[in-house]
Every structure is written in C-alpha cells, then in structure tokens.
TrEMBL record:
Keywords, sorted A to Z: Membrane, Signal, Transmembrane, Transmembrane helix
The protein, known as: Threonine/homoserine efflux transporter RhtA
GO CC annotation: membrane
Signal sequence region: 1-15
Residue ranges constituting the EamA domain according to the UniProt record: 144-274
Species classification: Bacteria, Pseudomonadati, Pseudomonadota, Alphaproteobacteria, Rhodobacterales
Residues spanning the membrane: 34-53, 65-84, 90-109, 116-134, 174-193, 199-220, 227-251, 257-275
InterPro entries: AA-Vitamin_Transporters (IPR050638), EamA_dom (IPR000620), EmrE-like (IPR037185)
Pfam families, per the entry: EamA
Superkingdom of the organism of origin: Bacteria
Compartments it resides in: Membrane
Membrane topology designation: Multi-pass membrane protein
Amino acid sequence: MRLFLLTALTMCAFAANSILNRLAIDSGASDPAGFAIIRVLSGALVLVALVLLRGGSVPVFSRRRVAGAGSLSLYMVGFSVAYLTLDAGLGALILFGVVQISMFAIGAVSGSAPTLRQVSGAGIALGGLAFVLWPTEALHIDPTGVSLMTAAGIGWAIYSIVGRSEPDALSGTAANFIVALPVTGLSLFVFGIDWQMSLFGYALAALSGGVTSGLGYALWYRVVPQLSPAIAAIVQLSVPVIAIAAGVLLLAEVASLRLLLGAGFVLGGIALAVMRRSRG
C-alpha cells in the first residue's frame, strides 16, 4: 500500500507539471524555453538546499551524471521545443508511447521482459489515451516536432531506468539537475529563445521546478527501483489522465464523455497490468 501511495503521489506531481506548464504558456505568462530553464534552475536550488540541510553531499562528478543528467537534459529540451509545433494531445501520445516502447525494450534487454498481462494492459491503457488525446480536426504533423518529442521520450525512459541504481534519490536528483542546467540552457539558446516571462510566469516555473519536478523526480528515483521497468512505464500512462482531470477541476475545462470513457480504459489497462492474479 505504501508503494502504491508513493507511486500515485509521484504521478500527481508529474501531472501537476503539465498543469503548471499549460497555465504558464497558455496565459502568455511565459515562453516554453524560458519556463524550462527556470524550471531546471529552481529544481537544482531546492534539491541542493535540502541535501545540504541534511548534511549530505551532491555527487556532481559521478559517472552516473553522464546518463542521469544527459537523459534529463534530452527530455527537457526535446519536450520544450517540440511543443512549439505539436498539438498538446498528440505530443503527449508520442511522448508516452515512446516511453512505453523504450522502457519495455530496455527491460527486455536487461532480463526483465514484460509479461503478456503487462503488454495487454499497456495496450489497453495506451489505446484509451489515444482515444482521449487524438485530435479530431484536420491534423498537421510537424516532423521536427515529432523527432524532438521522440527524443524526449527516449530521454525520460533512460532517466527512469538509470534511477533504479541511484544509491541516494535526493542527492542523485540534485546532481542531475545541476549538470542538466547549463546543458539545457545552451541547447535551448541554440534552438532560439525569445525570453518573455512575467512575474507570474517565473512563479509558475519556480513552483514546477522546485516542487513538482525537483521533489517529484527525487520521489520517482526512490519509487522506481521497487517497480519493474514494464510497470514503471505503464503507470506513467495515468499522468495525462490526471492532468486532464485536474484541468477540469482547476482550469474549468470540460469533462466530455470521450474523456470519461478514455480515462476508464487507461485506468483499467493499468490495473490489469499492475494487479497480481490471486492464487488458489
């Protein structure tokens, strides 16, 4: 039960990132690139402060940072720039579809192949997510945006797998954010950045970075070693559904029948994959 609650809390933190990002960008309070940079900076500051307060150290120069911080930077940059040309729903489908495939593949190679039950549950959940998020109007797919979001999905999958071997979730996440900051900043400036942020935008980005990203990712690093790669991939399909539900409650968005049906399939698929068959 404790693992379930911690996993659910982590998924809510991930969903909160989507809400904060959407609120900042849609309101014009921030541009995507600026939001990403302040998000990483805030996460680094909060995490380092927490590590130092408990008398710990931040292993910035560990070999783990190559994969940890590198994959985090790949996710942050790909995610931010891809949404300049992709519809939000389609971007989420690409991201979580790639995360599924990547984590399943990595798990299979490392000797933790998904079971038929897990694959079936993942398929049902991903189908439900597609039903909710797939655009209904004429769709223009930008190949550059698709490539960037695919890279973001691969980055997040690697980041999640690397977290399984991180000895200290908090200090490891802090070090990842520190190393990822200059990499993310330089990469976004290369793509071109039009820094337009209001005080409200800075506040939303800082909240996303310091709390729902920084602490959320540290909690994820604590939880993910207790989950198989397949389960870790599947439970993340709940994030868009939680984000959409939060949008209904907090941003006065409409709860359609399509949303309710799709959410039911997502949660049902996750339950099928995660719950163990009773014996006897």
